[in-house]
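seq:
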Amino acid sequence: MKRSSTRKTTVLADICAAMETIAPTALAQVWDNVGLLAGDLRAAVRRVMLTIDLTEPVVDEAVRKKIDLIVSYHPPIFKPISSLCTPGAGMESLVFRCIRQGMAIYSPHTALDAADGGTNDALAQLCGIYQTEPLEYVDAPKNDACKFVVFVPSHHLEKVADAIFEAGAGQIGDYSRCSFRTPGEGTFFGGMDTNPAIGRRGKMESVQEVRLESVVRTTDLPKVIHAMRGVHPYEEPAFDIYPLQPGPVRGIGRCGKLSQTTTLEKLARRLQFQTKAKGVQLVGRREQPVDFVVIVAGAAGSLPFRIPLSNRHVIITGEIRHHDALTIGRYGCSAIALSHWASERPVLKLLALRLAELLPDLSLSTSAADRDPFDALG
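struct:
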């Protein structure tokens, strides 16, 4: 008997969710345009091609390969556009052609720069560095959870705990019924209109209690409080609610220490070989010893100057402005400019591996037509 196939069809929404896991769009710079730029979220996707830039040769290649989705690192739609038409020399013409061919377009850009395992980490790995720190941290997404704390007499602990767990408390990732419990002594003095479950009104009482703590989604909080009140023996149970502040999120840029000291020229030649960069530029003396790298893929801008720099630091980037190069010289440190394209291209291999892990049914390729727009004289 022939077994029927149970393979699930991958749709564009699945890939967008996978990309959100790899490079959350919340990590992108505020000026950037990342995420799904064109496409039907319901459309089936089988073939995906990765590229740094969306160019006419890249689109030609995608058409030949019958690609369903182009993941273009640089967003072809960057500023608001008023029309999509062809022919033309603008990006609008290429985007229109992709849409007409039924090819979706997704761009991760600076979200992938900031993400762990992204553009800057790809360069760090080429340097042999696997433990890095970011040059900046970004605001974490708002936390939708809080800490719920209730004080329960010891003999009622499990009954109250079961009730709040059933109402949604204590869920952390794939773990459920999570809590922390601290024994202690509670005291109270009931007025003449009270009806204490333990002790007598008008008398100071002390009770052995447990501080029961558990994480609760804010949307579940009313249900948890209601469930707790329904089984708690006290007339007025004491409880606290604490908002949870999310931890810092790594942002753009990376810095880290080399495993051993080298020279500016040796490191530059190593990276030139690994990235196939055509026009590597140096700032600093070639024989200058370096052992600490600051990485900003693409264009360095002012990011490297956010940390204290010394003559042992080397900035690794794609391109450096003239006056920033002068500033680097005044700091006494050095820099390697690989070219904008060459500094970003290594991430495509890592991105393809991550997508293959999350969506193994996809056919993934890296564009062979994607090229550095600059050339260098031999």
